[in-house]
From TrEMBL:
Listed name of the protein: LRC3B protein
GO cellular component, one term: membrane
Keyword annotations: Leucine-rich repeat, Membrane, Repeat, Signal, Transmembrane, Transmembrane helix
Intracellular or extracellular location(s): Membrane
Source organism of the structure: Cephalopterus ornatus (Amazonian umbrellabird)
Statement: the UniProt record of this protein carries the keyword Transmembrane helix: yes
Membrane topology: Single-pass membrane protein
InterPro entries on file: Leu-rich_rpt, Leu-rich_rpt_typical-subtyp, LRR_dom_sf
Annotated transmembrane regions: 199-220
SMART domains: LRR_TYP
Signal sequence extent: 1-27
Stored PROSITE patterns: LRR
Keyword Magnesium: no
């Protein structure tokens, strides 16, 4: 007969073994957990100290919270396996760049995208192509230029969030600290860029044209000088030879 203590140890070991065998195959990152809110399947990873988009997110997730982490950038196809995603919260991270195609696969269903309070300075409008979601871009250190102007005109901003898109830097010092929509009411960054480019092209073309004209003038003058010297040489020759050489020179010049 086994001692009660021995029986207890055996029973405990059996329970641990069963627990290991019955553990779910999917192991979520620490601080992440699935839930259901208002009938929508939700996956929360808020304040989970993440440094990248977690893998193994359930592909039937409707609402994904990745806010308040340390995610530095969004790679291409970061959410391609989440075709039913409706809301995506990436606020309060350290995101500095968004690769083109980062939101590929979300165009049909996603209706809310929060990128506020990150470290975005400049993002191409192509990163949001075909995206119909309302986007929050506030509280980022934006560079106010043509690129931001194109981005703002491409996406649909969350109501009331436009005032939070502020110029942290700009080619014109007077724009710094002002709301971007207030600035572009008076300044067309893309038009200014186009004018600058056109002027540069005109200056370049004028430079090349001046070089060609200068070369032609030099070439004509050089030929005239050579002809003059040749005629002077002919004048120094005896009359019969000179007449023959002059006829040849005139016919060559003509």
């Amino acid at each position: 007969v086994l001692h009660p203590v021995t029986m207890g140890l055996l029973l405990q070991s059996l329970l641990l073994l069963l627990g290991c065998c019955l553990r779910p195959a999917t192991a979520f990152p620490k601080g992440c957990y699935p839930s259901e809110e208002e009938g929508l399947k939700t996956f929360r990873c808020s304040n989970a100290r993440l440094t990248e988009i977690p893998r193994d997110i359930p592909n039937d997730t409707n609402k994904l919270y990745l806010d308040s982490n340390r995610i530095p950038f969004l790679p291409r196809d970061a959410f391609r396996d989440l075709p039913l995603l409706l809301e995506l919260d990436l606020s309060h991270n350290a995101i500095t760049s968004v690769e083109s195609g980062a939101f590929r696969g979300l165009a049909e269903h996603l209706h809310s995208l929060d990128l506020s309070s990150n470290r975005l300075v400049s993002v191409s409008k192509d990163a949001f192509s075909n995206l119909k979601a309302k986007v929050n871009l506030s509280n980022n250190p934006w560079l106010c230029d043509c690129r931001l102007q194109e981005l703002v005109r491409t996406v649909e901003l969350v109501a009331g969030s436009s005032g939070g898109i502020v110029c942290d830097s700009s080619a014109q010092e007077e724009h710094v600290g002002k709301a971007f929509l207030q600035v572009i009411a008076d300044t067309d960054f893309c038009n200014v860029y186009k004018k600058t480019t056109d002027i540069a092209m005109l200056v370049t073309m004028f430079g090349w044209f001046a070089m060609v004209i200068s070369y032609l003038v030099y070439y004509v003058r050089q030929n005239q000088e050579d002809a003059r010297r040749h005629l002077e040489y002919l004048k120094s020759l005896p009359s019969k030879q000179r007449h023959s050489e002059e006829s040849s020179t005139i016919s060559t010049v003509v």
